[in-house]
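Long-time lurker, first post. I've been practising inverse folding by hand and with some scripts of my own, and I keep getting stuck on stretches where the structure tokens seem ambiguous. Below is the full token string for one chain I'm working on. Before anyone asks, I'm not after the true native sequence, just a reasonable design that respects the backbone. If someone could post their per-position residues I'd love to compare against what I wrote down in my notebook.
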């Protein structure tokens, strides 16, 4: 991967997956209802993907003494227990890797943060809403701003966190979730 692209100044780990069921508006399957066979593809994207990509690009950032890395993780992870959601065990490692990295790379000029996202209207969720428009209203009720996230909502924060203006900001989790986390 690194050999193809060369070094990066900014790395945003934003790919994610989960064990999902769109029936009855149930977006994430409760952990207890998942099958272990469901976990491998989810963990390959959400954990191994983040680790492999970060590991590929971080050494060059350290060598150049500059870089910014940001990972996204659902806001519901902050409050979810493994029994309540298949999300928590699959994405919480992103928080852990974010917490472990700053002391090691901060002295080398590399910042590492996490953007905690609410439900974003894109991909599978956008398709589910197109099939059942009432689903959007149902889900938006959970957000104080009254709507689901748009794919461009986290972009300004990601740009800030990976810029020179944020050289003293590292090791943090920032919610971009329409006010969902404080409303829990």
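-- Answer (accepted) --
I ran through it position by position. Result:
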């Amino acid at each position: 991967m690194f050999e193809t692209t060369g070094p990066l100044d900014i790395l945003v780990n934003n790919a994610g997956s989960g064990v999902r069921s769109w029936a009855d508006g149930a977006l994430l399957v409760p952990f207890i209802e998942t099958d272990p066979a469901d976990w491998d593809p989810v963990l390959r994207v959400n954990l191994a993907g983040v680790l492999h990509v970060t590991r590929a690009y971080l050494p060059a950032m350290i060598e150049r003494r500059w870089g910014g890395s940001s990972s996204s993780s659902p806001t519901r992870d902050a409050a979810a227990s493994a029994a309540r959601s298949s999300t928590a065990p699959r994405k919480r490692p992103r928080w852990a890797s974010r917490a472990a990295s700053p002391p090691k790379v901060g002295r080398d000029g590399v910042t590492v943060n996490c953007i905690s996202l609410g439900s974003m209207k894109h991909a599978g969720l956008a398709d589910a809403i197109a099939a059942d428009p009432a689903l959007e209203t149902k889900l938006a009720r959970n957000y104080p701003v009254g709507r689901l996230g748009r794919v461009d909502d986290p972009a300004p924060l990601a740009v800030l966190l990976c810029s020179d203006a944020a050289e003293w900001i590292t090791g943090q989790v920032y919610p971009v979730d329409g006010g969902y986390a404080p409303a829990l």
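A couple of notes from the structure itself: Confidence is low (pLDDT under 50) at residues 22-26, 77-96. The longest strand covers residues 67-74. Happy to go over any region you disagree with.
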